[in-house]
Amino acid sequence: MVNQEDPRVLRTRQLIIEAFRDLLRRKGFGAITIKDIAQKATINRATFYAHFEDKYALLDEVTEQVFHEMIPEQVANAREFTDEICEQLILQTHRYIVDFYQTCRMDSKPMATLVDEKIKKMLLQTIESIFLKGATHLGVGRNPIKVMAAMTGSAIYSAAHYWLNVEEKDRTDGLVDIVRSYVMNGLGLYRDGGK
């Protein structure tokens, strides 16, 4: 078992991740082999397997790492789900999806499904965390917050994903206007007791 705190282990792990990210830009996921990753990272296959079970585990970690890199600190530390926080989540989710679908050559349905599910899960966790921090003044229980976070995350993710196929997909102002209004009005109705 490798010591995850050892600087050499961390450096090797990062080399593997960087090699994989580079290969994703140049090759389709299905075409990437462990041998390709190991050669690009200048390690042997055994070293790869000491860090990751397979390329799917590596994909999972890369997906999470990139997501956390893209979420602004202001969103990660938000204590309330405001219009501005909602807008940033919409834009970051759209940017993330575009990056994975266009830059990383999403060439296989299984890979796309794995990445989509991971993004949805991380978005949901981010939103739920913000809602839970703000729940004290709302007087809302944990289960309703989980449901609201799931609906909010689904609305943001689905709209951002759909926007990939819109003619003016680079004009995110339209996306933000539609989704932010939908999400914030829905949350406002819930906070007002459905009035």
From TrEMBL:
The record's annotation in InterPro entries points to:
DNA-bd_HTH_TetR-type_CS (IPR023772), Homeodomain-like_sf (IPR009057), HTH-type_Tx_Regulator (IPR050624), HTH_TetR (IPR001647)
Pfam families, per database record: TetR_N
In terms of Gene3D superfamilies, this protein maps to: Tetracycline Repressor, domain 2
Ranges for the HTH tetR-type domain? 10-70
Quote the DNA-binding region ranges, renumbered to this chain: 33-52
What is the protein name given in its UniProt record?
Answer: TetR/AcrR family transcriptional regulator
MF term (GO), any: DNA binding
Which UniProt keyword terms apply here? DNA-binding
